Amino acid sequence: MTLRPMNIDPTHLFIAGAWGPSLGGDVLPLLNPSDGSTLCHIAKGSAADIDAAVRAAQAALDGEWGRLPAFERGRILARIGAEVLEHIDHLTDLESMDVGKPLTQARNDVIALARYMEFYAGAADKIHGETIPFQDGYTVYTLREPHGVTGHIVPWNYPMQIIGRSVGAALAMGNACVLKPAEEACLSALAFAEICSRAGLPAGALNVVTGLGAEAGAALTAHRGVQHMSFTGSVGVGKVIQSTSAQNVVPVTLELGGKSPQLVFEDADLDAALPFLVNAGLQNAGQTCSASSRILVQRGVYDDVVARMGAAYRALKVGPAAADLNVGPLISNRQKGIVESYIAKGADLRMVAQAKIASDAPAGGAYVAATLFADVPPTHVLAQEEIFGPVQVIIPFEDEEEAIRIANGTEFGLVASVWSLSGARQMRLAKRLRAGQVFLNNYGAAGGVELPFGGVGLSGHGREKGFEALYGFSTLKTVAALHG
Ligand code: NAI
Ligand code: MG
C-alpha cells in the first residue's frame, strides 16, 4: 500500500486549500506501532504555520465559505461523506497502520467518519433560532451563528472518529477550522483534508497543521484569532488548554477520558453482557476515552462473571494491526511503558488472566498482554486512574447503593452502563450514575453518531456528537426590533 494519504505528500501541510511544506521546512518521523519502524515523515508545523492557517480560516469566513447558505454547506458535507466511503479501503489501511488498529476496527472508524458527515450534512440547515413574544411594538428573534475560527486538537486513538465529530459539526454550523492532529498518528487527517478539497470545500474552511502538541498545539490554543477550542486528550493538557483559552476568553470543549464502569446485577442476562464487558475494555487495545475499565459485579454472580471474563481473556489474540486480531499494539513504546507500569502496580492484586501475544509479533511493536484483575478495592490506583491500555479490573458489590457509590467514586464521569432486567432499577440508576452517557443493557450503542457525548468531572465538559454539538459550535444572537 502507499503511505501517501490520497496520493499527497505527508510532509506537507494543508493551508488555504493548498498543500506545502511547513515554513521552517522541519519534519518529524511517524512510527509504525506494529513494529516500531518509521512509516514516513510528517511536517513539524510551527507557530508561524498555525498563524498562516488561522489567517486562511478567517479569510474563508470573510469570503466564499462565510457566504454559503446552510444547505450548501450540508451538500458539501454529504459529498465528503460519499468520498470517504469511496476510499474506504485506502483509509482503513492508513488508519490501521498509523494507529496500530486491527483492520476491522479501523474500517469501523472510516464508516463512523462517513456517518458523521452524513449526519451533519442533514443537520446543517435544520438548526434555527426562535421568535420570542415580547412587549407590544417589538419583534424579537434569535440567530444561531458560527463562532468563527475554531481550533481542533485531536489525539491519536481515534483520529477519524474525533475529526468527524468535531470538524463535521463545526463546518455544518459554518465555522472555519484549524485542525492539529496528534504527532503519533495523523495520516487520516491529511487524507481527510484532501477528500474535503476534492469534495469542493472552499479553500480555508479546513486547514490542517501537523506538528508537536507543545509547539503547534500550544500556538493554536494561544492564537488570538481562534474563537473556540475543542480538545480531546489527557486531563493535564486539557487543563493547559482551558487556562490558555481563558486568557483569550474563548469557550472550550474538553473530552478527557474516564474510568467508565459497567454494573452487573444478579438479574442480568450474562450471555448478552459478556461480549460487552470484555470488548468495551479492549477495543483499540483499551486506548479509548470511553473504555470500560471497571466491571462492578454483584456477589451472587461474581464468581461466574470472573470465570467467564477470564476465559474470554485467555482466548484473546494480540498482534500486529494487519493481522486483524482482537488486540493490536499500543500507539507507542512510551504508552506501553505507562501501561506496563500500571500492571506492575497491580502486583498485590488477584490477576485472573493475561492474554497471549502472538509469537510472530515484531519485537519493536508496542504490544501489551491484555490483563484482567479481580477483587480490586475501589480505592486502588488501578480502579481510580485511567490506564489507557488493555487492562480491566473487576470489583464486587453487595447491593444497589454500594454499586452506585463505587461507580460514582472516581473523579471521572464519561460513560456508565447497567446490566439488569429490572426496569425500575434501570430508571433509578440512569438518574443516579454520574456520567455523560448511561447505557442500559448495552455499552456504547454502537458508537451512535446521533447521541450527545461528553463528560462531567475530570472527564471534561461540553457535548459533542448529535444535534447538541451544533449548539456548542455556534453562538446565539438576540435581535430586538422596536417598530411601534
Ligand atoms: P495528550 O493530551 O498529550 O495529546 C493529545 C493531543 O494534544 C495531541 O494532538 C497533542 O499533540 C496535543 N497536545 C499535547 N500537548 C499540548 C499542549 N501543550 N498544547 C496543545 N496541544 C497539546 O495525550 P498523550 O500524551 O498522547 O496521552 C497521554 C494520556 O492521555 C493517555 O494515556 C490517556 O490517558 C490520555 N488520552 C486520552 C484521550 C481521550 O480520548 N480522551 C486521547 C489520548 C490520550
Ligand atoms: Mg502528551
Q: Structural class of the secondary structure composition?
A: alpha/beta
Q: State the name of the first-level CATH class of the largest domain.
A: Alpha Beta
**Cα end-to-end separation:** 69 Å
Strand order of the largest sheet: 15-17-18-13-12-19-20
Ligands bound, unique? 1,4-dihydronicotinamide adenine dinucleotide, magnesium ion
Mean pLDDT: 98
The number of distinct helices, counting runs of at least 4 residues, comes to: 16
* Shape label: globular
What can be said about the biggest beta sheet? 7 strands, mixed
Spans of 5+ residues with little confidence (pLDDT < 50)? none
Q: How many strand segments?
A: 22
Rg (CA only): 23 Å
Number of domains: 2
CATH topology of the largest domain: Aldehyde Dehydrogenase, Chain A, domain 1
Helix content: 25-40%
Keywords:
484 residues, alpha/beta, Aldehyde Dehydrogenase, Chain A, domain 1, Aldehyde Dehydrogenase, Chain A, domain 2, seven-stranded mixed beta sheet, 22 strands, 21% strand, globular, binds 1,4-dihydronicotinamide adenine dinucleotide, binds magnesium ion
Provide a compact summary of the structure.
With 484 residues, the chain is α/β, with parallel strands linked by helices. The protein has two domains: 12-256 and 461-479, Aldehyde Dehydrogenase, Chain A, domain 1 (3-Layer(aba) Sandwich); 261-448, Aldehyde Dehydrogenase, Chain A, domain 2.
